[in-house]
Amino acid sequence: MTILEKNGVITPEMDKTNIEFEFDVPAGVSSFGIDFSYSPKTLENEDEALRLVSAALEKYLGRDNGKEPRDFLPVNNLITISLDDPAGYRGAAHRQPNEQHIVIDEKNSSPGFSNRKVPAGKWRVMLNVHCCVCNVNYNLKISGGEE
Questions:
Q1: Which of 144, 146, 141, 147 has its CA nearest to residue 34?
Q2: What global pTM score does this model have?
Q3: For the chain, what is the total number of helices (H) and then of strands (E)?
Q4: DSSP state at residue 16
Q5: Largest pairwise CA distance in the chain
Q6: Residue 123 · residue 85 · CB < 8 Å
Q7: How far apart are CA 118 and CA 102, in angstroms?
């Protein structure tokens, strides 16, 4: 059963933010999966990537830092997932891949998430936008299994 499905676009103006979605887990659901993907993973415009790297090097290391911007390519987008259940923080998947499958279960949750009973009620999933350097399309689907 599909519990939540969201698709959208994250823009560079949303960098360093969290995008939150509330969803209801009905009684009888003992586990669920979160499928999350986004693209592009890498900023394909090399000129723009070099401009961003050069600006960051100057900001953090000063103008004459001796670093070659090309050594820091590619520039990647990074968006991760964190989750709250009705009792509070359930865990996070701060991983690099732009396609992820996460399992929430009483005994076999994916690494980063607590193994405990899946209670019915209001849950929250957050897209943690660590780095967004170009428009990024995302797909989020939460599907539940009944006992």
A1: 141
A2: 0.91
A3: 1, 8
A4: T
A5: 62
A6: yes
A7: 14
